[in-house]
Amino acid sequence: MAINFDTALGIHPQALALREKRGELLAANLANADTPGYKARDLDFKSVLKQNMQLAQPMERTQANHLSIQRSLQSHVMYSNPMQASLDGNTVEANVEQAKYAENAVQYQASLQFVGGHFSELMMALRGQ
C-alpha cells in the first residue's frame, strides 16, 4: 500500500509555504520602516489557501529548493492602508507589522506541529503500533 503524502498531510504543506511567504513580506515591511515612500504589503492568506485548495493542485516545484507560488501570490499581495499617514509617504506602522509578524510566526509553528504529528502517526502505522 503506497502512502500519498498529499492526502496524508492535508493542507499543512501549502499553509507552511504561504506562511513563509507572508513572513517574508512582513519582514520586508519591518526592514523598510524608515524608507521614504515604501508601501507596506501583506498577503491575503485565506484567499490564497482557499484558491489552492479549490484547484486541488499541490504546489509545483520548479527547482529542487523552490516552490512555484509566486504566480498565484502576485494577485493576492495587497498594500496596507496606514491608520496614521506618514509625511514621507511610508505606510509601514512598525507596531502593527510586528503584531502581524508574531501572529504569523505562531501560526507557522502550529502548522509545523500538525505536520510533525501527521508524520508521527504515519511512523506508528508503519511500525504496526
TrEMBL record:
Gene Ontology CC annotations of this record: bacterial-type flagellum basal body, rod
Main location (coarse class): other
Top-level taxon of origin: Bacteria
Listed GO biological process terms: bacterial-type flagellum-dependent swarming motility
Compartments, as annotated in UniProt: Bacterial flagellum basal body
Organism lineage string: Bacteria, Pseudomonadati, Pseudomonadota, Gammaproteobacteria, Methylococcales
Alphabetical keyword list: Bacterial flagellum, Cell projection, Cilium, Flagellum
PANTHER family reported for this sequence: FLAGELLAR BASAL BODY ROD PROTEIN FLGB, FLAGELLAR PROTEIN
Domain Flagellar basal body rod protein N-terminal, residue spans: 15-39
Record note on quaternary structure: The basal body constitutes a major portion of the flagellar organelle and consists of a number of rings mounted on a central rod.
Pfam families: Flg_bb_rod
Task performed by this protein: Structural component of flagellum, the bacterial motility apparatus. Part of the rod structure of flagellar basal body.
Similarity remark: Belongs to the flagella basal body rod proteins family.
Keyword presence, Protease: no
NCBIfam families for this protein: FlgB
Name of the protein in question: Flagellar basal body rod protein FlgB
InterPro entries: Flag_bb_rod_N, Flagellar_basal_body_rod_CS, FlgB
